[in-house]
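Feature request disguised as a bug report, sorry. It would help if multi-protein outputs had a clear separator. Right now it looks like this:
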Amino acid sequence: MDALLQFFAYEHLPPHLQSVSKPFGDMARKLAAELPANPESTTALRKLLEAKDCAVRAVLFKPLPSYVMD
């Protein structure tokens, strides 16, 4: 599980993305410290990582111009 924690680092991000990413990193470290090491714990961290990535992409999202979707 500890190897997955590297993907929850947020210090290198610009401030507007740090504020989105930090809560996920905090939760990941808490889970890694408190959950027993087993496949379900690893899956929990992986799914949390997916959620973090989606949240960051939500902030970065820019709608496509309408002519691109035609």
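(second protein starts here, but nothing in the output says so)
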Amino acid sequence: MPCVVGIDVGTGFTKAVLVDVEEERSEGESGRAKQPILGRGIVRTGAYLEEVAKRALDLALREAGRDRHDIVYIATTGFGRYAVGFRDIQITEITSGARGARWFFPEATAVLDIGNQSTRAIRLDAHGKVSAFKMNEKCAAGSGSFLMRAAKYLQIEVEEIGELSLRAARPQPISSVCAVLAETEIINHVSAGAAIEDIVRGIHNALADRAALLLRRVGVGSDGGRSPQLIFIGGVARQRGMIAALEERLGMTVCVPPQCEFTCAVGAALLGLHRWRKLRSDSSSSRRPDGE
């Protein structure tokens, strides 16, 4: 059975998603037909980008019970999208993230993507198209890698950060926009005897402040009182403490897709599917006899 693949080659992890080319008969909560996701695969990104893309794809195929002969089209996204030589099309993270978020939440008006090395704020128009976006790539203090470095220094697992943050009683301020200086602040808090959960919540608050600034720069929350539906995607969105920090800073509900780290891969797969169908339609039209 044919399928389309979306591969997100990120700086931290590479994700692959398979979608069926046939529409699912049942409809989702939005009343729209949902495209079934057949399989997912995720591996840590290394130096050989095409190889990790193949490994993520193989995992997704295995989960779906398919093989490479079933693949009719491959779309790539992420910083390493050009490195995948077996792709059919490449798509930016902005476009794929917006498409994936809108698929999970059809009423979405804004998307926040906090990745390993960058944070992206995206505003969508009434049709789900990207109308504005801003990125923060200048320093790791505004991205997920800073959380990983902080967890290593604090001797805790990254998976623990989200729950620890929720238990904070006195969040400690992290004011530096530079990762090196922010780490110095963390060291000072530890030396002063601050609780780990308070330091972690301070880190989440700092990330939330930077994200809020980017969102304001794309006009989210400045549209005359209209309440936006903000979709939070990327691996950091798995941390409940980060969600709480964002909701507190932004004063709005933050929605998170299931298995949020695959959102860009899902978006790439759906955009690839659209492209594949268009190519088939154009090919069929060109073969029709004149006057038909």
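Even a blank line would do. Unrelated, but nice: The helical segments are 49-64, 93-104, 144-154, 161-166, 179-191, 196-217, 240-250, 263-287.
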